[in-house]
Amino acid sequence: ALTQDLAGRRVVVTAGGTREPLDPVRYLGNRSSGKQGYALAAIAAARGARVTLIAGNTELPDPAGVDVVPVGTARQLREAVLKAAVDADAVVMAAAVADFRPAVYMTGKIKKIDGEEPEPVTLVRNPDILAELSADRLRPGQVIVGFAAETDDVLANGRAKLARKGCDLLVVNEVGEHKAFGADRNEAVILATDGTETPVPFGPKEALAETLWDLVAPRLTDRPA
Ligand code: PMT
């Protein structure tokens, strides 16, 4: 990397999708590949940061020089993030965290019974980790970044989500066939609480990562000695 502007900084990045189990063999999941979060972690490390990457489901190899903490469910991801964030200058929530989980986990595999309809699956809410991190700032001056994956009214929903979640920056990406979930490329608008909106043109997920760290770096406060 040309710049070492994150030298001496500790950052936490989440990536990939969570899996919410129904029984020992089935889960509710999503199409996140982890590519965007892994690109963010790799670029931060290249710019000098000490990086903890909290990884939901993904097939990707660990980025060089990054501490990887694998997790399964949203609740496990929450535990891992809260632990790592205590000493972090910035936390970037690129993971696709499940909003809901099955209300009941069946310890035995759910059986198909002749002549009977299946039981409906009841869902309950998972904790909103981004909102909690933003409200409770585990370290003074910590910069919190959220993502918003939207399909309709992308910018309007993104602006509302920035206000609702209370984070400092929100990367709004539109879900599409060749961008966001699973793709190698992405396109976004990065919203800041000061009202600035930075468009990121369609391109490699690494380019979005560079632009995001460009916006995070000047917002970092001095680390107390
Ligand atoms: O992994 P890839 O295939 O590379 O795809 C990248 C991506 C599309 C998954 C990524 O760019 C992205 O948009 N990640 C966020 C996906 C998402 O869950 O968006 P959301 O709008 O549902 O959630 C908003 C924010 O709240 C996110 O920062 C999310 O991490 C966080 N969240 C959501 C739910 C929850 N219970 N707790 C959370 O902290």
Automatic annotation (TrEMBL):
Its cofactor is FMN; Mg(2+). Pathway: Cofactor biosynthesis; coenzyme A biosynthesis; CoA from (R)-pantothenate: step 2/5; Cofactor biosynthesis; coenzyme A biosynthesis; CoA from (R)-pantothenate: step 3/5. One of its GO terms (cellular component) is phosphopantothenoylcysteine decarboxylase complex. One of its GO terms (biological process) is pantothenate catabolic process. Signal peptide: none annotated. The keyword Magnesium applies. CTP binds at residues 99, 109, 127-130, 147, 161, 165. Its EC number is 4.1.1.36, 6.3.2.5. In the C-terminal section; belongs to the PPC synthetase family. In the N-terminal section; belongs to the HFCD (homo-oligomeric flavin containing Cys decarboxylase) superfamily. Catalyzes two sequential steps in the biosynthesis of coenzyme A. In the first step cysteine is conjugated to 4'-phosphopantothenate to form 4-phosphopantothenoylcysteine. In the second step the latter compound is decarboxylated to form 4'-phosphopantotheine. This is Coenzyme A biosynthesis bifunctional protein CoaBC. It comes from Streptomyces gilvosporeus. The chain holds residues 198 to 422 of 422 of the full protein.
